[in-house]
Amino acid sequence: MVVKRPADPALGPVSHSYISQRLRLHYVDWGNSDAPPLILVHGGRDHCRNWDWVAQNLRRDWHVIAPDLRGHGDSAYSLSGDYSMAAYVYDLAQLIHQQNLAPVRLVAHSLGGNIALRYAGVYPEAVEKLVAIEGLGPSPAMEARRASRSYAERMTNWIEEERALAGRLPRRYASIEEALGRMQAENKHLTPDQARYLTTHGVSQNEDGTYSWKFDNYVRSNAPVDLTAEAMHELWSRISCPTLLVYGRESWASNPAEDGRLRHFAKARVATLEGAGHWVHHDRLDAFLAEVRAFL
Fold first, then answer.
1. What's the CATH number of domain 14-140+224-295, 3.10.290.10, 3.40.50.1820, 3.90.79.10, 3.40.190.120?
2. 10, 83, 173, 184: which sits with the fewest CB atoms below 10 Å from its CB?
3. Would you call 135 exposed, middle or buried from its count of C-beta atoms within 10 A (0-12, 13-18, 19+)?
4. pLDDT, tens digit, for every residue of 33-50?
5. DSSP H/E element including 246
């Protein structure tokens, strides 16, 4: 049982939990509960504390809540290994429903952006504004390649991938410094202080004194079957709130203003930030906050 207490503005957030499909999922609350709710949703193999710099800036004007997705951070692992998009969307729906947060504003990154966009398409009346950082998923070209594979081929590949993950032990790092090196290799834009902070919150210490990333290895696997491109476009078209799609100029992700996906949204625009990769909110924090504040 998590004991609730008011967040001290001079300190960090307070941890809480909620239940979704029998899983105890973790989220942090930055206080200011009388302000309009704002949920920050992290990306794959990440954790809720990656939003701390954003949350610290926005907490004075918003009731900021940041969940750990299932299998991530301090949330429970799915015993069945179910990390489908439907499960993630259900978890977000349960958080909003149980805490009575709708109508809500959402700011989400990558996998979190995909989840938030789907939620907003399913419950358009529950979302007032939405910011998705590179959250549209695979590019149209990648989707076309996936669609060209037969169901049997996709299932075979998925089963083999699941079996491989079942035998894969979490990597152990001898020290925080060693894990920090891996974090820095993942994103060259991070400052040393950013990388250390994200690493410290992203690992847990094993009984033998080594460190491992908190996320479940099964989150690396993608479901063999998901929405078709047509179904996804229909879902996007149902989003009725103003939507800001943020992209980093140096990212590997495909920009919807250039690949045609923007046309499926009724009220969306794209903001492309120079000097940023996939983690725009880390790489260009001040510029990102300026965009988000103006939009919200």
1. 3.40.50.1820
2. 10
3. buried
4. 999 999 999 999 999 999
5. strand 243-248
